[in-house]
């Protein structure tokens, strides 16, 4: 049965249908039973728990968004709560899903032909295939709309890809990677479904991360990688298609940021009730309550924002600047929140076992990926002033 989260202070979950609440309850139960007990260990060893992919797919978390695979009709607010729920237990798992279901499947949904959608989306939703999304490059991050150096050259019925990608999530074990490259003929960005066993494609793990250690990122090298025309995303003729994918996934990252903030806040609240100092629980000291209430204020404000941005998506009203503002605002509030939660736990706040430290570290990656706070700010700045500061 569904128990509302106490940290959803204004009860936004009441917007969900009965069926949506049931699905969320099932997901929450699975995360508590199978993910929370093991995830710190994977995080510490910088390993992804591959055995969780199949049961994760079984929860429907990678299927809900797409007509081809949705088990029941559902809202964008519900899918946001799914991202929140995943991130509330672990941001690496929510990032894995964000890449698999958001960036990779989203590229096929937004820019694939009907045949490409039918062929690939069910396999990604079931976890039969793992997907990745390769946009960022060693020399092109924030400026990837115009700065891409990876090239695509058409030769008859094939395309030849050359270049390098950096930071690509899931790409150490992905079966297909969506590669975004510039067509040398017309200078436009196009997308390609690249099976990772294609000759000339190689991926290597990025070592030494202090954030999102359980989910893996890769550097990719493409050397004369040949893909047939039928693997080019048929409806991606310019960076506009890539931007459409990012508009959707940025809103999801904003939801994940709320989940990360809640994860840290819940750990701090539980700790503060049991830790005694000066003869009473620290939760009864005024300044500790102040930290906890500031956390809840951030969470509640961000939750209101992401709920609204998802409602706008369902109504066909969501624009790039709407999801950009939610992403930059919610991740900035998340970063404050995890720091306050950690602070409320004193020294134990920096130890994995006490539950806030992993969220504290993972927040840094969410803050910068899918467009840094600065770039998302400039997208909003362009919308409100009519003047683009980043071209
Ligand atoms: P840079 O672009 O070099 O920016 C450095 C700093 O300069 C930032 O603070 C930035 O805001 C600032 N800056 C840059 N330009 C301006 C400007 N015009 N005005 C003001 N400030 C500016 N990419 C993928 O394609 N696929 C993935 O799956 C993926 N997963 C990721 C996972 C993780 C954990 C991380 C850390 C990154 C991932 N990325 C992925 C890449 C991510 O999207 C980029 O890191 C991000 O877009 C920023 O690019 P950059 O790191 O190259 O920073």
TrEMBL record:
The keyword Flavoprotein applies. Signal peptide: none annotated. Keywords: FAD, Flavoprotein, Oxidoreductase. The lineage of its organism: Bacteria, Bacillati, Actinomycetota, Actinomycetes, Micrococcales. This is Glutaryl-CoA dehydrogenase. SUPFAM superfamilies: Acyl-CoA dehydrogenase C-terminal domain-like, Acyl-CoA dehydrogenase NM domain-like. Residues 240-384 form the Acyl-CoA dehydrogenase/oxidase C-terminal domain. Belongs to the acyl-CoA dehydrogenase family. Its cofactor is FAD. The keyword Zinc-finger does not apply. The gene is gcdH. Residues 132-225 form the Acyl-CoA oxidase/dehydrogenase middle domain. GO terms for molecular function: acyl-CoA dehydrogenase activity; flavin adenine dinucleotide binding. It comes from Agromyces rhizosphaerae. Residues 17-128 form the Acyl-CoA dehydrogenase/oxidase N-terminal domain. One of its GO terms (biological process) is fatty acid beta-oxidation.
């Amino acid at each position: 049965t569904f128990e509302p989260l106490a940290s959803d202070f204004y009860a936004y979950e009441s917007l969900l249908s009965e069926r949506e609440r049931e699905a969320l309850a099932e997901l929450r139960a699975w995360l508590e039973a199978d993910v929370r007990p093991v995830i710190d260990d994977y995080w510490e060893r910088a390993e992804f728990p591959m055995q969780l992919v199949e049961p994760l797919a079984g929860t429907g978390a990678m299927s809900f968004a797409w007509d081809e695979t949705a088990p029941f009709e559902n809202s964008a607010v519900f899918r946001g709560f799914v991202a929140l729920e995943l991130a509330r237990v672990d941001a690496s798992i929510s990032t894995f899903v964000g890449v698999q279901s958001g960036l990779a499947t989203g590229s096929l949904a937004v820019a694939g032909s009907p045949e490409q959608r039918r062929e690939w989306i069910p396999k990604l939703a079931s976890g039969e295939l793992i997907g990745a999304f390769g946009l960022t490059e060693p020399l092109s991050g924030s400026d990837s709309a115009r700065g891409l150096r990876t090239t695509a050259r058409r030769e008859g019925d094939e395309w030849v890809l050359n270049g390098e990608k950096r930071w690509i999530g899931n790409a150490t074990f992905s079966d297909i990677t969506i590669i975004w490259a510039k067509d040398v003929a017309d200078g436009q960005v196009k997308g390609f479904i690249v099976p990772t066993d294609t000759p000339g494609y190689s991926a290597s793990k990025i070592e030494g991360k202090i954030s999102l250690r359980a989910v893996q990122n890769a550097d990719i090298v493409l050397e004369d990688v040949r893909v047939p025309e039928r693997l080019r995303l048929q409806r991606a003729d310019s960076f506009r298609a890539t931007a459409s994918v990012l508009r959707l996934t940025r809103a999801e990252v904003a939801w994940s940021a709320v989940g990360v903030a809640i994860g840290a806040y819940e750990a701090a609240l539980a700790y503060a009730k049991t830790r005694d100092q000066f003869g009473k629980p620290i939760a009864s000291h005024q300044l500790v309550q102040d930290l906890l209430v500031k956390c809840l204020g951030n969470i509640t404000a961000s939750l209101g924002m992401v709920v609204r941005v998802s409602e706008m998506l369902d109504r066909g009203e969501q624009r790039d600047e709407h999801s950009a503002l939610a992403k930059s605002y919610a991740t900035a509030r998340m970063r404050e929140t995890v720091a306050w939660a950690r602070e409320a736990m004193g020294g134990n706040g920096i130890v994995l076992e006490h539950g806030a430290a992993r969220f504290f570290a993972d927040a840094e990656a969410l803050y910068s990926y899918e467009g840094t706070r600065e770039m998302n700010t400039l997208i909003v700045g362009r919308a409100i002033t009519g003047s683009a500061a980043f071209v």
